[in-house]
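Hi W.,

Here's what went into the run:
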Amino acid sequence: MIGRTAARRVLSLIVASVLAAALCGCAGGKTAKDSSGITIAIPQDIDSLDPHYMTAAGTKEVLFNVFEGLVKPDQAGDLVPAVAEDVTISEDAARYDFTIRKGILFHDGSSVKASDVKYSILRCAEAGINASLSAVKEIETPDDTHVSVILEQGDADFLCNLTCAIIPESNKEPAVKPIGTGPYKFVSRSPQENLIVTRFDDYWGTPAGIKDVTFKVEANADAVVMDLEGGSIDMYARVTSAQKDQLSDKFEIYTGAMNLVQALYLNNAYGPFSDVRVRRALCMLMDRQGVMNFVSDGEGSAIGSSMYPSFSKYFMPELNDLYETDVEAAKSLLAEAGYDSSSPLSFTITVPSNYQQHVDTAQVLAEQFAKGGVEVKINSVEWNTWLSDVYSARNYEATVVGVDASTLSATALLSRFHSKAGNNFINYNNPDYDKAYDKAMSSVDDSVRTECFKECERILAEDAANVYIQDLPCFVALNKKFTGYVFYPLYVQDVALLKPAAQ
Amino acid sequence: MIKKLLAAAATLAAVSVLVFFAFSLIPGDPAVKKLGTQATPEALEMMREKLGLTGPLPLRYLKWVSGFITGDPGVSYSYDMPVAELLGDKLPVTMALVFMAFVILVVISVPLSILHARNEGKRSDRVLLFIGQGIMAVPPFFMGIMLTWFFGIILKVFVPGGYVSYKTDPAGFLAYMFFPALAIALPRIAMTVKLLRAQILKEAREDYVRTAYSRGNSTMAVLYRHVLKNAFIPALTFLSMNLTDMVAGSVVIEQVFGIPGYGRFLLNAILGRDYPVVEAIVMGLAAFILLVNMTADILYRLLDPRI
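Here's what came out:
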């Protein structure tokens, strides 16, 4: 009924259009890659370009390359001078005198003045994101190159808060046109797409090894392997252990630590968990190696308190083995506390569903606890729900999560367990702990402080405040065209250290 | 027509109430999301004030609706940018994807179904039916992964994840969009071909076709002037449904191919509690679906004056 010519015409049309499209595809593919720069995938979009308003760890680690504070962290976990050339701290640690680095320039070519430093620190304090900065009483600027920060009271650990970014007072649009002093300067940003930076040629320090850097927002973590192999990205710092095995030998895998305290955090105010015997029993029921094998290929580092190994000054490996796995001993502890097979201990672990490692950990723990007759339910919630229900409202029984340090100081990990801390989301209340922590804070002698912080860690471990598990491993995949990736003890991606591999 | 327009307006109003109040009920505080877990309570309170999250809900709703009608859907919480500017910038991305998919759908499925109907009962017909069934069963996201693997990794026709902005390289942009569009279109092509083939065959057996032949018309004339016109009416409903469906499908495909279009914005805005963006996108989608349905209504009348 329908003519042969019509059919033939139709067929040739299809062939032609498919061919045309495929040819277009070829042309497009070749323009996509520029060999002079590097494209680094980041798991989520930048939350703010304004350094004083950024909160996501994923943003800070990227913009570490653009902004600098008076001081900044280095790979060993020490604070080194950045915008400041040197610092003098008074006896009582209440006065910090800085000399601004000679000849240091902002990305717009203007020189850094004392007034910019004062403006930046006050602006950062005003933003209210880092509550510690409210301890600043006054900032003196006797001349253009000297700044003194005066605190309400002495705090020997305060320097770590002065990593707050120094930006020019003259920039009226810090959230749109960010200007800093770092090794890379801002070029452009497209929401949900990318952030592009380029080498700052007047940088005061060692110039960056690669000129152009694109941070590409990789919303779909499952596409990472294909994108790496296909060449649209050169580096990804959050490769899972399964993905690392799928990658070809075009990539170097760097293994480090995520720098966080992963634990089964217990709401100490919740009935059963107010009993130390119950908390200790849970520690004894956990087989840490079993968890690590399942969750992270056995490559994590064991931890026994709220401190991770990169903080070598404070980390106490001896606390890792405080509780040996011993189901019988755990059972008798639980029986003492009034839980047996007729009235078993049962609770719910609320876990943020966007962190697969924490969800996996909760599942392994539930099985391990079952051996001791403990019934565990897992409630997987979306991240915002976790933040409001668990973290802010503290309306939960137990949760698996990783807690990281926002600054290079023991207080970043330990301050939250003080009974008066606003972010004490486990409702931990122990007068001995408060005493040890307060003593650390009132002392300016570093060795005394370190001893007190270690005492705090010991108390958390012996009191079984939480069931401490591990610092998770972190795998970074880098195309072998480039080399030089270095891990920091904080959330930092120091791109300036990367360089093209020698041919 | 006026009745239809009124119904569309009522639908939009209902959607606006739903989306606004639903997001006021779910847990999650945009201020906490924005300032982080270390923020001081004063800073949080100030941020809620700044974002307009204080005050009674109905009043906030009215404020938002009036802003929306006057063309100002507010400022994005996460980007500190006017929503109109933020989304306007990405409109061509999703539009290009959906319309490319639609063009591929029409360009391939219409001729293919004619060819298919022409060969009814032959071996090629049965083979095509079999392939069509197979393609229909594959969900678009999996189709996307297969296309990426085959054309991206094996044949290296395109770079997976190598999206380029339409601003910097329009040709490269369209080229990159081809495979995502194909992934959205393929399962629908199979469905459309199946439907259109059946329609053509049904119409071709009608009496008027025999009459048309007897009046000395050529095969081509009968096909284009009579059969296709009638076979298209049911297919039109299906195509317009497909067009709206493709917008929904693009949410998933954008994730698979790493395309920063509306789908990705919607997902991230929901996760980030960026209400102005979520509300604007949902309203935009609702308006788009209504528009497509109304256009389909008008087209029916053109094809068949009896409707």
